[in-house]
Specification:
heterodimer; A: alpha+beta; 4 helices; 3 strands; 60% helix; globular; B: alpha+beta; twelve-stranded mixed sheet; 28 helices
């Protein structure tokens, strides 16, 4: 069965996709398509999200209680499920953001160590 | 996984379909939006659609994965396997029915027997912390002491008083003693009936930790004041008062003495000796002359208080937490031995001191103490039945899996992993075991009731939670064993190749047949063991039934009577008995009537030391004799042959010369070579009697007993218990006399019910109720085992014949006769049987040794039982193989050869 390569990719996107979704929803409620586009736009098209992978992540976040989905109507008068950040989702986002920042800091200080004489 | 997500999934369980639809809908809308944007960017509609799809990735996978987020993949696999297993079982209803039924019978028999054993031996008394409770026993006795009741359970009052004060060992020590050997008359309102009453110490309920359903329990004050109060058992409250809550405060007349009901014991508590008859009413210790323990008459010197050398009390103690049995015994032994000699004087140096010891009230310890219990032998028997049943089902499963080899190969070729295949086959086995266990549970509910009735157990033997655990454990073990069967099948599936093969024969056929034969032989060996045991037990029962009792038990009605209120002195009592005899003797249908002190066949016996003509006939050793107080015409009514001299008559009154009748064993042992008539028997200094007759030996405490020297004394010339047993020789059916007898006895007042009225025949049969149950069960289990072995063998032989159809066809085409084919099949079965017999014979002999003390009049190596068991096994195997053998002989060579 073709499960193996898929799992590898999920491993890669797993945590960060959740975080990205939560971050996007901080602007306000959005539907799946909106979330995907928003991630792409704000990352200046650097991050290409495979739209399909969004949906399992959305289910997981709902089960964790970090987001809530409700049916509504879009600007174009189209029916869609709009996701909204919950209080615990906000807390989760804060925690993940700080962890992410520390991670980035750690990685970048390894990748480009500061020169001793220029030290601050 | 975390609990929050699991919770969310559980919450979503009921709307899973809706959720799935919503996800599909969301994805559809998403694609639609994307396509619309693409169109707005100037793409052609179809181009826009495909671009959206590309952007999205694998649509089905995204939907599936989203849906799966709401499920438990392993559970779904299991459900799938279950559904698949059920479908497979349904497709093969015959196989399923046979397998489930076989397992149900095997497990059910085990559950039922375990349930009874659990109730009789394992289950603790339903009280607080029952593990702390012990029964107190004594080994050996004190010179001059006289005991009543169960020898090893009986203590004197001083022992109770002194041991009770050992608070650092016992947090509570309770004592109890029945008011009579059997039951006593109890009246409430105008209705009088027989009831089991125990006198107990004031801490009985509080010390044992028995919860009361209603009212209050006794206090130590009730004991010291001898309060006339009573606590009813829940059962008696239900039976007699229909659980009327107003029973508290009502008056019960126990042997005509008024008692006020103050409480009702908890539902499950039926006394401290639940295997014996349950207690109906408890009262505190009494000091009245008319309420002496064990039915002693008011004028008897022996009573609860002030008879130091009477051993009659039963005791139970609750050990202080942390005190071990060993420590407790070490602490108590000197205290007990001092108390044992109280009122007798200092022990002489050569005296062997009585020893105190404990026994458990339940649990493994009690099981160990009763390692020779019939239930353990029964347990072994049903375990063998279960083993045979399991082997049968395993064989069936293997045979069926072999037939499904093509299916397995196909599925492996289609990409199913062997692991998954194994899981599926395991699930099928589990399903069978689950169905079998369920059916077994229902079966055991019914079977325990039958067993309880047969074994005479009065406790609740219905399966409880312990039994459920046992059954589940058995089911798990069987599942593991049956799980091995598909393991081999799943792993042996050749990949690819077997698809090309056409039919039944496989490369493993040969070794599988050999294995099948070994298994069949083992089954036959086990079956032979069971049948042998059954044969021995049936012969035991036959022997017991046909034993010459020495008297005519049939046609006798027997019942107990306690003299009514107002009968106080010995003279009044004698007058009452004479009047009673006169009244029942003349009833229509009564041929003759007499009295006796101890009821024959009740198990109780009165033993004493005796001197003949002033000397001890056995020199230094004590000459023990069993004695009974009996009425006029005793030998005649019972039908005991009179060998010499005369029977008692009405003329042997209290004032007449004191006389005795002895039995043959007495004459042979203590008066050898002399004419016994005229010799003098001396029971005590004051009690010397002249032998006037010699009776033939007869059974007394039970059918199994050996003959002991026995003396009969006229009831008029010996004082004794207040209760007497009346024996009536009926012209026809003894039980038909009952209404007439009841009417006649009722004329003596409301407090004179007939106690335990029954035929003497039934009373004697009660003494071998265990053996009766045993023989019936062993026969049943033997038949069951036989049936299982036969079906198993039938299956194996049929399978083999089917496989060899082609070969048989060739043989017949080459000129083999039908008779030869028949013989060929039968011969193999006979070889297997022979092998089984060779393994089984030593096994059966070992098993027979286990029965040991249960057997009566038959040796464990009984040739007849072995022979019958062997013949039965042979008949069984021939019968089981004959059907497939005949089918083989009917094979049409042409058809067989064309057959694939």
């Amino acid at each position: 069965m073709a499960k193996q390569p898929l799992q590898d990719r999920i491993e890669l996107v797993y945590g960060s996709l959740d975080m990205l979704i939560l971050r996007t929803l901080l602007w306000g409620p959005a539907h799946g398509h909106g979330i995907a586009q928003s991630i792409e736009r704000t990352s200046e098209e650097m991050l290409k999200v495979e739209h399909g992978s969004l949906y399992p992540a959305l289910q997981r976040l709902q089960q964790e209680g970090w987001i809530r989905g409700d049916w509504g109507v879009s600007k174009n008068n189209q029916r869609a499920k709009f996701y909204r950040l919950t209080a615990s989702g906000r807390r989760q986002l804060a925690a993940e953001t700080s962890r992410w920042e520390r991670f980035v800091q750690a990685v970048s200080s390894v990748m480009s160590p500061a020169e001793p004489e220029e030290g601050k | 996984m975390n609990w929050r997500r699991d919770l969310a999934k559980v919450g979503a369980l009921l709307r899973r379909r809706k959720l799935a639809d919503e996800i599909d809908e969301e994805v559809r809308i998403h694609l639609e939006m994307e396509a619309q944007e693409n169109r707005e960017r100037g793409m052609r509609p179809d181009e826009a659609h495909y671009a959206a799809l590309r952007r999205f990735g694998n649509v089905t996978q995204a939907q599936e994965q989203s849906r799966e987020m709401w499920g438990w993949p392993w559970l779904e696999t299991l459900l799938q396997d279950l559904r698949y297993g059920l479908r497979q079982l349904r497709r093969n209803p015959g196989f399923t029915a046979v397998a489930v039924l076989t397992l149900a019978l095997g497990i059910g028999a085990n559950t039922a027997v375990f349930s009874v054993m659990n109730a009789a031996l394992l289950r603790y008394l339903p009280v607080r912390n029952p593990q702390q409770l012990v029964y107190l026993h004594t080994r050996g006795s004190v010179p001059g002491a006289q005991g009543t009741g169960h020898y090893s359970y009986s203590f004197n009052l001083a022992s109770f008083r002194e041991l009770r004060a050992e608070h650092h060992v016992f947090s509570d020590l309770v004592a109890l003693v029945p008011l009579a050997f059997g039951k006593v008359p109890v009246r409430s309102g105008n209705e009088s009936e027989e009831v089991a009453v125990n006198m107990v110490s004031g801490n009985f309920f509080s010390g044992l930790g028995v919860r009361l359903a209603r009212g209050r329990a006794f206090t130590l004050e009730d004991e010291s004041r001898h309060s006339q109060v009573a606590v009813l058992s829940y059962g008696y409250w239900t039976r007699r008062f229909a659980r009327n809550p107003d029973v508290i405060g009502q008056t019960l007349y126990i042997k005509s003495v008024p008692f006020t009901v103050i409480g009702v014991a908890g539902h499950s508590f039926v006394g401290v000796e639940p295997r014996k008859s349950p207690t109906d009413v408890w009262i505190p210790f009494q000091s009245r002359a008319d309420l002496k323990p064990w039915g002693r008459s008011p004028e008897d010197k022996k009573g609860l208080y002030g008879s130091p050398n009477w051993w009659f009390l039963m005791m139970m103690g609750r050990l202080q937490p942390g005190v071990t049995w060993k420590q407790a015994i070490a602490q108590l032994q000197p205290v007990f031995q001092r108390a044992a000699y109280e009122g007798i004087g200092a022990p002489k140096p050569k005296d062997r001191m009585p020893e105190l010891y404990f026994s458990a009230t339940g649990g493994i310890q009690k099981l160990r103490e009763n390692h020779d219990s019939p239930f353990i032998v029964l347990m072994a028997m049903v375990a063998v039945v279960l083993l045979i049943a399991c082997i049968n089902v395993a064989t069936l499963l293997i045979a069926r899996n072999a037939a499904r080899e093509r299916e397995f190969t196909m599925r492996v070729a289609l990409g199913v992993s062997r692991r998954r295949l194994f899981h599926q086959l395991l699930t099928e086995g589990l399903l069978l075991v689950a169905m079998g266990s369920g059916l077994a549970w229902i079966f055991s509910l019914w079977a325990t009731r039958v067993l309880a009735a047969w074994s005479g157990l009065t406790v609740d033997v219905a399966p409880d939670s312990t039994v459920l655990v046992f059954t589940l454990a058995v089911a798990v073990v069987i599942s593991l064993v049956l799980g091995l069967a598909p393991l081999s099948s799943a792993w042996r599936v050749p990949s690819g190749l077997a698809l090309k093969r056409t039919g039944g024969a496989t490369s493993h056929g040969q070794s599988r047949c050999r294995k099948g034969q070994v298994i069949s032989a083992l089954q036959i060996a086990l079956c032979l063991t069971l049948l042998m045991g059954a044969g021995l037990l049936i012969r035991t029962l036959r022997n017991l039934e046909s034993t010459n009792l020495g008297f005519r038990a049939s046609g006798l009605l027997v019942f107990g009577i306690v003299p009514p209120q107002g009968v106080h002195t010995d003279a009044e009592r004698l007058h009452f008995w004479q009047m009673l005899l006169d009244r029942v003797r003349v009833l229509p249908g009564v041929e003759s009537a007499t009295l006796m002190g101890d009821r024959i066949g009740s198990g109780w016996s009165n033993d004493t030391y005796v001197r003949v003509d002033g000397v001890n006939p056995r020199g230094n050793q004590g000459s023990i004799v069993r004695w009974n107080r009996v009425g006029p015409d005793f030998l005649h009514v019972l039908g005991i042959p009179l060998l010499e001299g005369r029977d008692f008559t009405d003329a042997d009154s209290a004032t007449a010369p004191k006389v005795a009748i002895i039995n043959q064993t007495f004459a042979q042992r203590y008066l050898a070579g002399r004419n016994p008539i005229g010799h003098q028997v001396e029971v005590s200094k004051k009690h010397r009697l002249k032998v006037i007759g010699v009776a033939a030996d007869s059974k007394y405490t039970g059918v199994r007993e050996d003959q002991v020297p026995m003396a009969y004394f006229p009831y008029t010339q010996t004082s004794g218990g207040g209760t007497m047993t009346v024996e009536l020789r009926a012209v026809s059916n003894p039980l038909a006399l009952l209404p007439e007898v009841r009417r006649a006895v009722a004329t003596f007042g409301p407090d004179v019910p007939l106690l335990q009225p029954m035929t003497q025949q039934a009373q004697m049969e009660e003494t071998y109720a265990d053996e009766q149950m045993f023989a019936r069960l062993a026969m049943f289990f033997g038949l069951l085992a036989g049936l299982l072995v036969a079906t198993g063998l039938y299956g194996t032989v049929s399978y083999k014949v089917n496989r060899r159809t082609q070969e048989i066809g060739v043989r017949m085409a080459l000129g083999a006769q039908r008779r030869q084919v028949l013989w060929m099949v039968l011969r193999e079965s006979l070889v297997v049987t022979l092998a089984g017999a060779v393994i089984g014979l030593p096994l059966a002999l070992v098993g027979a040794r286990l029965l040991g003390s249960i057997l009566y009049g038959v040796r464990p190596t009984d040739v007849l039982s072995i022979g019958v068991a062997l013949i039965a096994v042979c008949a069984l195997t021939v019968a089981a193989s004959l059907v497939p053998a005949r089918r083989a002989a009917k094979v049409d060579p042409m058809v067989a050869l064309r057959y694939e």
